[in-house]
Design a protein that fits this description.
The complex is a heterodimer.
Chain A: H1 8-14, H2 30-34, E1 50-56, E2 62-68, H3 70-74, E3 78-83, H4 84-87, E4 116-117, E5 123-129, H5 132-140, E6 143-148, E7 174-182, H6 185-190, E8 194-202, E9 205-206, E10 214-220, E11 225-230, H7 235-246, E12 253-256, H8 272-284, E13 288-291, H9 294-300, E14 303-304, E15 307-315, E16 321-331, H10 344-352, E17 362-369, H11 384-402, H12 406-411, E18 422-423, E19 429-430, H13 435-446, H14 448-459, E20 464-476, E21 494-500, E22 506-510, H15 519-531, E23 538-541, H16 559-586, E24 593-596, E25 599-602, E26 608-611, H17 612-621, E27 635-640, E28 648-660, E29 667-677, H18 684-703, E30 734-738, H19 756-772, E31 782-783, H20 787-793
Parallel strand pairs in A: 1-13, 8-31, 11-12, 16-17, 22-23, 29-30
Antiparallel strand pairs in A: 1-5, 2-4, 2-6, 3-5, 7-17, 8-15, 9-14, 10-11, 10-13, 15-16, 18-19, 20-28, 21-22, 21-27, 24-25, 25-26, 28-29
Chain B: E1 2-7, E2 10-15, H1 22-29, E3 48-51, E4 54-57, E5 70-72, H2 74-80, H3 84-93, H4 102-115, H5 121-127, H6 139-156
Parallel strand pairs in B: 1-5
Antiparallel strand pairs in B: 1-2, 3-4, 3-5
Helix pairs in contact in B: 3-6
Classes of the chains: A alpha+beta, B alpha+beta.
């Protein structure tokens, strides 16, 4: 795979002297975070600010018979106790559906529950006080009378005729169903030498951002304007939704996003309690702050991945896969989330299963059902871990059935690197992937044959190690096909404005956002490279709807590929504008000049003609000295959205090397490898750390993380002592390698990298555990792979 | 209740409610917001500060317990330059993404480096195993601490 693009202009713009593209440079915003001088929403204090605490339902499903807040209202420091009906005067309910997900239905959801609660943790009243502590004291003496209703908790029986329908107006508990039948599936299975099937079970887990969701909403009644300070990935989406439901124009809502303590998709949605906070500010005419505590986070941050998927694969003796078939079932809680909906994950599972492989025969059914548990929605690598675990689990089962090495069966079925462009049976279009190059690189990095020898030798000493391989594809750089076509006001385009200030430094405003991925850095790297300005002189402004161009933000691995391209195009225009004016000043021509190292230079020999600082002085303060007719435009704005491909697919392969203790059931991760292809790499360190962080989130899902509900819909482990997350002691070192296949849709050539690690990590671990346990004749297709699951499978408990 | 203590080298006299924890006291009364609150039940490590030389979880300690004590937060360690090399190593290795865990992580790492001259990677992982980071996957943090340990070892050798 070559790094060289078919578009020679890429090299001319980005391979300039002192280019930052492809280089490791430190992120510009790290010092303030390391010194404790960041500004997270939870740090904010405004004058006259009230703190809101939400009283939440202890029941999974209940009718609210009455709320008595009389005593709470009398408590000193309490400003207001507000119920659902009272808040409904200032905010309208919403329904989380999109038109391109045909048949998707949901019920109206209110900011605070009215008459009925549908999950444990749904807010029934808001208590606003001078401090959170006082509000919590008051919450304890609000008396809510509940009449408990039967809770629908098991997704497997949610559609049974004798199961209560959660929202009677919808007719049943089926939120969404999608069926796909491509190729000749029945004939392919009939003609297979072996057909293997298994039930794959995925634990419901959640994002556990270290900073809980936090909002400060500040309604200024005199200006008739609402300022929302929120750690969100999509400020313009929040602006649109807040305005829509508060009866305001978007121009009356400003969303400001400072430092964000982790997002991972948790903070790309609109939550009822956040809507309630906006509404409370308007109702009470003062700033209101909401910071979720950890228990609330577990009960109300979106959950994800609660899937049960029956999978089937057909294979020939030669290892050629003949067909895939899946039947996926997922339970999403009582409402489809707003505005992105809760059908996307199941839809992605249907799209992605079998994606790396050649076979054209594929049948899928996915059903999404309502239940009385917390809401589920899109979390890092949406649907990918499910699809990858099912696909790669089936491929390993097929390999074992016909006695073929797991790497060999993949090599016989992965789409050839020279077969692009092509499409999957589910209709995904692939511009250029590199499965085989990635696999070859992985084999070298991990020294596969040596590991197999080591594995074999250790078996004799009763040490059971396993190797797991997982190839994957990943959706990145989404166009309007993701949300816009379904009617959501979620922009798929992004904008960047670049200007040269009066001292020759650069200010860059971008609509993508920063939650630690390195958006500021990659923007500064691109702008600095194209302009010939050192990164220290590029300041990036983001996360403010008043002060950035309109755009989507940072989610679905889109920041670098879409926002980065907008930055590149804007910087090119500014560069041209600078050189036009400089040529007039220097009595030269733009073609004879260049900008290098913060100075205008002769293109031929690089000799300095004028510092940018001096150039800016002339333009801004002595325009009288410019030749007649010259009007400098030292600010340029460009927007970008992919139009040719709905998504820029990336690919890669992961491998896990681990040891299973067959007496205790504990899994020790020894090493993990990833080879991925995100196209042009802007900053290798940032990409590698996105991959590593993503892998570890996938490893958490594989081994530890699960929201444990009882049959009454009570979340029994809603704290960090009982819900286990990966900590440094259990995590392995992770080796990351790259193949580079730039997308031709942009000059930059970058695709997304933020979710690749999460997409395949659990599949690699599950395959490695089964590889380790092969002598025992057991196969486990459930995650998290807890000691209990492993010992049960081994018949030890 | 009245308390008197030293915070980052400055004398502080304050009146606090008996139930106020140290994290909230630092953040809300002293506006030292570099100490973060992640779980409020002593698991995540984001609120780690130093009290009389020992690292503690400030969400598990009451403000009144610090009467007469010397407390250091990330702001203090940054201004004194005590962890400047560690911070530089974190920056060079991109050992933080969202940065919310970082003040606590730096506190815990500095605590280890004061106890051990050249800890191995397993020791580093073990010592930091009470500090939750959702972003990095820990490897870059371990690298940065290891690099700092070696550099300090060379300087004192």
């Amino acid at each position: 795979m070559s790094i060289t693009s078919s578009n020679p202009e890429i090299l001319s713009e980005l391979d300039r002297p002192n280019s930052y593209i492809g280089k490791v440079v430190p992120r510009p915003n790290l010092e303030r975070l390391m010194q404790g001088r960041g500004l997270y929403v939870s740090d904010m204090e405004l004058a006259r600010m009230g703190h809101v605490v939400f009283l939440r339902s202890p029941h999974a499903h209940a009718r609210i018979a009455g709320i008595d807040a009389g005593a709470a209202r009398q408590l000193p420091g309490v400003m207001a106790v507000v119920t659902g009906n009272e808040l409904a005067a200032v905010i309208t309910p919403w329904v989380g559906v999109l038109s391109h997900l045909k048949g998707l239905k949901s019920a109206p959801q209110h900011a605070l529950a009215i008459d009925r609660v549908c999950w444990q943790g749904e807010a029934v009243a808001a208590i606003v006080a001078t401090s959170r502590a006082v509000a919590e004291d008051a919450a304890e003496i609000v008396n809510v009378e509940y009449e408990e209703l039967e809770a629908v908790t098991d997704m497997r029986t949610a559609l049974d005729p004798d199961t209560p329908v959660i929202h009677p107006s919808l007719g049943d508990n089926l939120a969404f169903e999608r069926n796909l039948d491509a190729g000749e599936v029945d004939a392919a299975f009939a003609g297979s030498d072996a057909v293997v099937e298994a039930d794959f079970i995925f634990g419901r887990h959640t994002g556990v951002t270290l900073e809980p969701r936090s909002v400060v909403a500040d309604w200024n009644a005199a200006e008739a304007r609402l300022t929302i300070y929120q750690g969100t990935q999509a400020p313009h989406m929040v602006q649109n939704i807040a305005a829509l439901h508060l009866g305001l124009e978007e121009s009356q809502v400003r969303v400001v996003c400072k430092d964000v303590g982790g997002s991972f998709g948790i903070k790309v949605h609109i939550y009822a309690d956040e809507m309630a906070t906006y509404a409370l500010s308007k109702l009470l005419r003062r700033p209101i702050k909401f910071v979720a505590d950890r228990v609330e986070s577990f009960n109300t941050d979106i959950h994800a991945r609660d899937h049960r998927c029956r999978g089937r694969i057909g294979v020939g003796r030669d290892g050629v896969i003949t067909a895939f078939e899946i039947d996926d079932l997922t339970g999403i809680g009582p409402y489809s989330m707003y505005p992105r909906t809760s059908a996307i994950e199941a839809n992605q599972v249907v799209n992605l299963v079998g994606g790396p492989y050649v076979t054209r025969n594929y049948r899928a059914r996915a059903r999404v059902v309502f239940q009385n548990k917390n809401v589920m929605c899109q979390y890092r690598a949406v649907g990918h871990p499910i699809a990858c675990s099912v696909t790669e689990g089936l491929v390993d089962l097929a390999a074992a059935k016909i006695g073929m090495d797991p790497v060999e069966i993949r090599r016989r079925n992965l789409i050839a690197d020279n077969a692009y462009p092509c499409a999957s049976p589910s209709g995904l279009r692939f511009e250029l992937l590199s499965h085989h190059a990635a696999m070859n690189k992985l084999m070298t990095m991990m020294d596969y044959d040596a590991l197999r020898a080591e594995q074999s030798a250790l078996r004799a000493s009763n040490i059971h190690r396993g190797i797991g391989i997982a190839s994957f594809i990943e959706v990145t750089n989404p166009s309007a096909a993701f949300y816009g076509v379904g009617g959501a006001k979620i922009s798929s385009q992004d904008g960047v404005a670049v200007r040269l200030d009066a001292q020759g430094s650069v200010i860059c405003q971008t609509s993508i956002t920063e939650q630690g991925q390195g958006s500021e850095s990659l923007t500064a790297q691109i702008v600095g490279s194209v302009l010939g300005v050192s990164m220290e002189r590029v300041r990036v402004i983001l996360g403010d709807t008043d002060n950035t161009p309109y755009g989507g933000g940072t989610w679905a691995s889109r920041g670098a590929g879409i926002g980065g391209e907008a930055a590149l195009q804007a910087a090119k225009i500014l560069r041209r504008n600078i050189l036009d004016v400089a040529a007039a000043i220097l009595q030269s021509s733009p073609a004879e000049l260049d900008i290098v190292g913060d100075a205008i230079v002769n293109a031929v020999d690089g000799s300095s003609r004028m510092e940018l600082r001096e150039f800016a002085r002339i333009v801004y303060f002595r325009p009288d000295t410019l030749p007649p007719g010259i009007q400098p435009e030292l600010m340029a704005t460009r927007h970008f959205v992919p139009r040719e491909y709905p998504f820029a697919f990336t690919n890669g392969v992961q491998a896990s090397w681990l040891e299973v203790d067959t007496d205790t059931g504990f899994v020790k991760l020894l090493r993990h490898w990833v080879v991925e292809d995100c196209g042009t790499i802007i900053n290798p360190q940032l990409v590698d750390e996105q991959i590593r962080g993503g892998v570890v989130q996938g490893l958490g899902a594989a081994l530890f993380e699960k929201c444990v509900y009882d049959e009454r819909g009570q979340l029994t482990n809603a704290n960090m002592a009982d819900y286990l997350v990966p900590m440094s002691g259990e995590m392995p070192d992770i080796d990351v390698g790259h193949v580079v296949s730039p997308t031709s849709e942009t000059e930059l050539g970058a695709k997304g990298a933020g979710e690749a690690g999460t997409a395949g990590a659990a599949a690699a671990v599950a395959n490695a555990v089964n590889d380790a346990l092969r002598p025992f004749g057991v196969v486990i297709t459930e995650i998290p792979l807890t000691p209990q699951i492993i010992l049960t499978a081994l018949g030890r408990i | 209740m009245p308390i008197s203590l030293e915070v980052n080298g400055e004398r502080v006299d304050a009146h606090v409610l008996p139930r106020l924890n140290l994290a909230d006291f630092l953040r809300e009364q002293l506006q030292l917001t570099g100490t973060h609150v992640g779980c409020e039940h002593g698991v995540c490590g984001a609120c780690t500060v130093r009290v009389n030389g020992e690292i503690v979880r400030s969400c598990l300690m009451l403000a009144v317990q610090t009467n007469g004590a010397s407390v250091q937060t990330i702001e203090g360690l940054s201004d004194s330059g005590e962890v400047a090399d560690l911070q530089a190593a974190f920056r060079d290795r991109n050992a933080l993404q969202c940065g919310f865990c970082t003040p606590g992580m730096l506190m815990a790492a500095q605590d280890l480096l004061k106890q051990q001259t050249e800890p191995g990677r397993e020791q580093i992982r073990e010592h930091l195993s009470g500090n939750y980071c959702r972003c990095t996957g820990y490897q870059a943090i371990v690298d940065a601490v290891e690099t700092t340990a070696r550099a300090r070892g060379r300087r004192t050798a």
